[in-house]
Design goal:
Shape: globular
GO cellular component, one term: membrane
Largest sheet: 3 strands, antiparallel
Strand content: 5-15%
Distance between the termini: 31 Å
InterPro entries: MFS_trans_sf, POT_fam
CATH class of one domain: Mainly Alpha
Family: Belongs to the major facilitator superfamily. Proton-dependent oligopeptide transporter (POT/PTR) (TC 2.A.17) family.
CATH architecture of one domain: Up-down Bundle
Protein name: Major facilitator superfamily (MFS) profile domain-containing protein
CATH superfamily of one domain: MFS general substrate transporter like domains
Number of strands: 11
Radius of gyration: 28 Å
Low-confidence stretches: 1-45, 317-347, 620-624
Number of helices: 21
Organism: Gossypium davidsonii
Length: 624
Amino acid sequence: MDQWAVVCEGTSARVRYDSSFINRQRSWAYSDIVQPLQYAHSCYGQQDMLLNILEEGQELNKWEGYVNWRNKPAMRDQHGGMLAASFVLAFLANASNLVLYLSKFMHYSPSSSANIVTNFMGTAFLLAVLGGFLSDAFFTTYRLYLTSAAIEFMGLLILTVQAHTPSLKPPICASASTEIQCEKVNRRKAAMLFTGLYLVALGVGGIKGSLPPHGAEQFDDTTPQGRKQRSSFFNYYVFSLSCGALIAVTFVVWIEDNKGWQWGFGVATAAILASIPVFLLGSPIYRTKIPAGSPITTMFKVLIAAVCNNCKSKNPSNAVMGMKTSTSSYTTETGEEGNATKVKVPSQTLTEDLEFLNKAVTEKTVSPMLQCTVKQVEEVKVVLKIIPVFMCTIMLNCCLAQLSTFSIQQAATMNTKIGSLKVPPASLPVFPVIFVMLIAPTYNHVVVPFARKVTKTEMGITHLRRIGTGLILSIIAMAVAAVVEMKRKKVAIESGLLNSAEPLPITFLWIALQYLFLGSADLFTLAGMMDFFFTEAPKSMRSLATSLSWVSLSMGYYFSSVLISTVNNITSIFRHTPWLSGSNLNHYHLERFYWLMCILSSLNFLHYLFWANRYKYRTESTAD
């Protein structure tokens, strides 16, 4: 109020409006502007002057580039914020028990079941790219989520019907011997199974591509408080996934094992249906980014223009505009970390990074359609620079794929009792889930504030260091998994149960060790990747960039399938039987496979260090 001065001098009036101050305080509530104006208006009646000021205040109160759910301009005092983001903290469907459903009820072999699950999960996460692309280019994240949830609902409904109807499943196989083969699901029934699975995958992909960026867009990234809240949102998004996973691996798994898979699928179907009205409750306060057209088109235009202009670089008439370069808008990972979060306005000149692309900006192009701006070139550079970091996270997610496949099958061969309580093998992920639920709030409210005080930076712990921590934990997890598998097989041999389907006299809690390390790796890496990709990417392609976190998971699952097939093909040349083949897990050489993954993960970490040490952070910019 002290920034407004209303001076009454008889019948005249003078209103002083400090526009520079209000520009610096863009986060003011609209009422903070209206109240003094109403006072001045009632005192003096200077309507024209006050209306002009009021109109300017209204413009300042708008979120530029955002609309509400009714496609009207979003207002700063009405839309966005932590409350709006809290409505999108959703549950994650858990597939840990799916591998047992495929092997025990659809009669696929353990390796085939593992491949089906990894392919299904890989496809679901890969389709997140489609969701992110559609969110940025054509649809809002709000509408895309609702459409994707409906598609996932239809897929789960098909799976529920099949699980409920005996004629749609193969005959029950009650053999206790692992040497007798059961009848697999036939083509017609398999078609229904995979139709349901991949409708779910399509829905999950759309949700993954729209929901995280929808929540992150609720925060004002031009203020330190908004950026801190956005970082907290990604942490609590992972926390919410863990809450959903806890229900899935306990209550839902118990229902599947004791009441039937039709009830398990039914609970998942009801859950996704119930999530739609919960999401809709936040509609009045959501702000949604206006689609800005295809970001992929811009990327291809810049790349094609750069190639064409480099080919004609000998021609003096094609001199590059803006050859003066600048790196003042960027800070390095290895340098002073405090600079990584300072707000600067980048110069409108080409940077020295990826100079090959600079020639996309020319005075004379091959075609007017290939005319590029400096901003477009710099945005493409940012995307190209985050790709190596993305590639380095694929191996970690290949390790995570084992949690839904071989780890579950290992636990199924062991003693799953804790005292008198018999724990379903698919509930084993409860250990990392609980650990993540405990460590996520601790990390957000203890570790990060402490790191901010020590480093005196806004971030506290940089995104790349957080991702690197996850990669180290995945290496440890694979080494632990190999040692535990060696112990499990030793017990099977000593107890004479190598060819038996009876539980081995060793507790399944040994498997929990690898779950704890991989669960911790997932916490550090997933939230770090989403925050990193969203923060670094240009605003026009943030949904697409955030979906790279899920694409990394997808590629990890696919790479797991390829790795298993490759290992089997190579080892079958030197042995009569491959490492990972057959219906009896006790005959697998799973420990060798885990040691191989440990070595590959170590090499991948060295590869990651190479790119992380050279990465230059893209600073926040009010001009972006």
